[in-house]
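Trying the structure run again after the queue cleared.
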Amino acid sequence: MLILLADQAISDWEQQQITREVNFSETAFIFSGKQTDGGYPVRIWTPNTGEVPFAGHPTLGCAYVIQPLIEQGYPDEVKLNLKAGQITVSRSVHGMVMRQKPPVFGVKIKREEIAAIFGISLGEIREDYPIQLVSTGLESVLIPLKSRESLSKLQVIPPKFQEYTARHPECNCNHFFFTDMGEYFFGALYYGRFHRRCCYRQRKWKFGGLSFVVWLLW
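Done. Tokens:
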């Protein structure tokens, strides 16, 4: 991730070219040393997809940079004006904490479709939670699995994924697989347009990308 403090106007084309040249998962541009409309204007880009309305790490990163370099101190909170809307990032004893938008729940997907696309059996997908499109600023399809072992089996089949997104164009986005490992831990894996395939194990209240899961399970 790269955070840039822009000292002049940068066109959309230039922002995308910079992002592709750096080739990090996200590049964020802070466009003013002053707050406008109650917050600092920020835009977030990815190398392949272009601008995205929201992403957790760049949001926290921008607030972290703004505090000492623009605010010249450590205020209790920083407000960022993103494409998804205004996001507040505050300081706590645990570090930087952001208040994301309330989740918006979209279309539900059949287990059979996901199993065929990602090379797993129906029995590996939980039945007590839906497979559903959810957004707190950036859309993801949430897929609950029964075990961590199933995460290692996932392998997208491109022709089937293309057929699936033709049927559900709104689901041409990140797909977030998760499994409850107990003791407030989750195993999880992302497939998607905005992120490379990545796997992590994290406490549910510590990682922004799991916010949908917290809403779904609580």
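The first helix runs from residue 12 to 22. Worth checking whether this holds up in the mutant runs.
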